[in-house]
Amino acid sequence: MNEPDREYSSPPRGKRVALFVTCLADLFRPSVAFASIKLLEQAGCEVSVPLQQTCCGQPAYNSGDYEEAVPLAQQVITMLQDADYVVVPSGSCAGMICHHYPKLLEGVWRERALELAAKTFELTVFLNDIAQIKPSKHKPSHNISSVAYHDGCAGLRELDIHDQPRQLLQKLCGIEVSELQQSEVCCGFGGTFCAKMPEISGKMVDDKLNDVLATGADMLAGGDLGCLLNIAGRARRLGEKIEVRHVAELLYQDLDTPAIGEGD
Amino acid sequence: MSTSARSEIFARLRDINHQASAERIELDRQALGSAPVPKPPASEICEAFLVNVLKNKGSADCVSNRAEAVAAIGHYIYSHFRSHRLVAGNDPRLAAMPWRDAGVLPRFGRLEVGEPVALSFAQLGVVETGAVMTWTGKSNPAANNLLPEHHIVLVDTTDLVPDMEHAWGRIKQEIDQNGPPRGINFIAGPSSTADIEGQLVYGAHGPRKWHVILMGKVPAEALSRARTIAGV
Amino acid sequence: MEQHSETFLDNASAALKNSAQAERRDVIAAFAPLIRSAAIEGFDEFDNLRKHIKRVRQHSLDHLEYYLGQFEYQAVQNGNHVHFARNSDELNSTVLDICQQHDAKRIAKGKSMVTEETGLNAFLQSAGLEVMETDLGEYIIQQAGETPSHIVAPALHKSADEIRELFQSKHDLGPRELPETVDLVSEARDILREHFLQAEVGIIGANALIAENGYSMLVTNEGNGDLCANLPRVLIVCTTIDRVLPLAQDATAMLRLLVRSATGQAQTCYTSFYSGPRRESDLDGPIETHFVLLDNKRSDILASDYREMLECIRCGACLNHCPIYSSVGGHAYGWVYPGPMGSILTPLLTSLEQSSALPNACTSCGRCAEVCPADIPLPDMLRDLRHEENSQKLSAGRWRLGLKVHAWLARHPKLYHALTGLAISTLHLFGHKRGSFVRLPMAGGWTSQRDFPAPQGKTFMQQHQARLKRIARQQNEH
Lengths: 264, 232, 478
Hints:
The complex is a heterotrimer of chains A (about 260), B (about 230) and C (about 475).
Chain A: E1 16-19, H1 23-28, H2 30-42, E2 46-48, H3 58-62, H4 66-80, E3 85-88, H5 91-104, H6 107-118, E4 120-122, H7 123-130, E5 147-150, H8 153-158, H9 163-173, E6 177-178, H10 193-196, H11 198-214, E7 219-222, H12 225-238, E8 243-246, H13 247-251
Parallel strand pairs in A: 1-2, 1-3, 3-4, 5-6, 5-7, 7-8
Chain B: H1 2-16, H2 22-32, H3 45-55, E1 59-63, H4 66-81, E2 85-88, H5 92-95, E3 105-108, E4 117-121, E5 124-126, E6 131-135, H6 142-146, E7 150-156, E8 160-161, H7 164-178, E9 183-187, E10 192-193, E11 201-202, E12 209-215, H8 222-230
Parallel strand pairs in B: 1-12, 2-3, 2-4, 4-7, 5-8, 7-12
Antiparallel strand pairs in B: 5-6, 6-9, 10-11
Chain C: H1 8-17, H2 19-40, H3 46-62, H4 64-77, E1 81-85, H5 88-101, E2 106-109, H6 113-118, H7 120-126, E3 130-133, H8 136-144, H9 160-170, H10 181-198, E4 201-204, E5 208-210, E6 216-220, H11 224-230, E7 234-240, E8 244-245, H12 248-263, E9 270-274, E10 288-294, H13 298-303, H14 317-320, H15 323-328, H16 339-349, H17 367-371, H18 378-391, H19 397-410, H20 413-431, E11 436-437, H21 444-447, E12 452-453, H22 460-477
Parallel strand pairs in C: 1-10, 2-3, 2-4, 4-7, 5-8, 7-10
Antiparallel strand pairs in C: 5-6, 6-9, 11-12
Helix pairs in contact in C: 2-12, 3-12, 16-18
């Protein structure tokens, strides 16, 4: 597969960024989208939110329904073609756009998919590597003692996201991440996998949760809501008191919103 | 069975792939070149070989000539078995060694069940892997590699090759001169298994100990430096 | 081998409930990736090696007819009998014929996944032959009447205690208790040594066939395969047609990938190349040697979009790095090949219908592809198999329908936003106090294991659109 050209020359001050909210943030956790917008603005970008957005097509694609995934991919490509940059607060949805659209589509659409892939970035990659966000003048309002980080698999392996969220947490919030022992192992979410093979998924998320708890951290952050809903849901089920949040909320210091799975 | 299965399988393969001339195919393969080789653990060839022998859980010794070799072998078998006997293949290089000087009593031929020690003179030592290589024949019955409790292998420093590609170069000379040997055996350690709970145990089916004696111009301190690098 | 892949989910469920085995799997899952990464550390060109071997494998498969023909010619020149088998039955009966021609009663067998695939042992045994597996792991599971749970380490699912009990019940131990692992290994060594010395026929597999010189390559640590290849008077090498490589150096270059990926070594203790029967100058070795080369759908795979799967070198790294394999173990997959490679090979070598759960036993986490020394895009292939299942309507109808409805809705943004807005508000209404649901209609799979976190309130798009309207109104007012 051709790797999309990800070279860039100047930081995108004043560049127009289209936010691809992702369906999970749209439906379950709008605070992730709001935090993303604020962070992008803090980094000097002009943010727009295309109104036609729904879903990137991953559920159909991963379930093998390529025929349904193709028109969704085309819809997303058309919707985002005019943006200078596209930013996605999810490694797996960004991976879908950057790596899987070009595999799924053919001919002219494949070319267009590669063009989109070249300007699409996951949020922490964009903030850290492209926009090179500076800390805000306000001191971090919350004192968070220790945070564990969950690397979503698609982000880690398809987009090489590892250092960026850690550097941002350090730079913007003064947080050093407590590392998991098995940080490269999947949490068992896997989209429809968790519902199709619940027992296996349950074992995997248990392992992940135990790894998180063993760090002694009182918060878990991550860049993918699918994984976080999974881990937070398991923590709630077992009555474990770990606060689970999307990294954008933490970077924006929006800690008044109840954590994932927490009541009002 | 055979003829129809054969012709059907070949016909199928012919259908699936594009046809090309033998010449074209061989040229295409040549164009792919050779594989990268891992860097040796030391720049000096004897030292690098010894590091890998030790990493393979072999024991090692260095001698400068045949008299020292015989003495080292005699010492090894006496210290492990309180014996002066061993079995060695009908290798003319071994037959010509001064056994009597060290009081060693070799029997030349194939190892019989119950004989605990065999000695082989390797055709090659491979620096890349720390393996010794023998090909089967009068000099090297396969049983002598596989059935003893302890396998002692003598390697001449002039027979060290840097990697497997060079090993094949030497083997090809042999094939061209004397026809293909029945078996070509690279040995890189005592027989081992981790089949029970992943726990590494030596002496699975073959030798429990593998002792390599490097003979020739070995730089002083090569073995002790190799031990440091290999961490043994 | 008998197949039980249809019941993957039940097999997995039973495996998860066996807590002792699950614990051992966890230990191995933590350990195996470490020895692999230690083995390639400092080998800077590992990735270039991977690319080189990929090109060589592609080239050999592109010209398989040529190289297979060349191998056959060389092997016959070297004094071998070369047989071809279209399917398992043909391989099994070819091997039996050879054994019967030599009046053989005892067979010593090296580890061979291909003969597991064809069910050779059971076939030979039903003809009255005594077949002894000689790889320690294979020997253990043969004695236990089980099947391999891993393609490299077939008995890793058993504890030392279980193996001790097995030997106590199967061997005449007298007062010996075999307290340590090393005692268990010694016990098997003694039993099998006897068998090696008595067997009339040795059967081994091959890690590669070399076209230029007609040699086969055999890689082991125990040396059992070499004993099979050298002591009995007849040797039969059973492997598949796709194993052929052009040059000798290609086989040993592949070895650099294989061994590091499989066991974390630079080379196994024994790497052997065999060309044929005993020569005049030989003091030992078989007097007659055979190759039985099996197709069993490899040519179908070659003609399909899954051709790259033939580049698999059977190292087991994808098993060792797969969180699903390490959760449920190899037996759950219900056939010879487990884990990611098995979830692709099993449908291709048996049928997708019989094994439709396997391509779904994947979260697309990509760890297998990352470590695969053959650089096979395993998650992509698994997804392609799900695509076939979807097209052939082999997947559950309610899932297919649900995903179609979702996709249709997602193509109609206005309707999508209106309906999701309604649904999310309802969920929020019932869930915001507690923050998550313990049970939820149509989400039984999710809530069987974990709570379902409640949404925060209105959807982002609802809030965003309301904000846009507000801004527009304010601008109008000014």
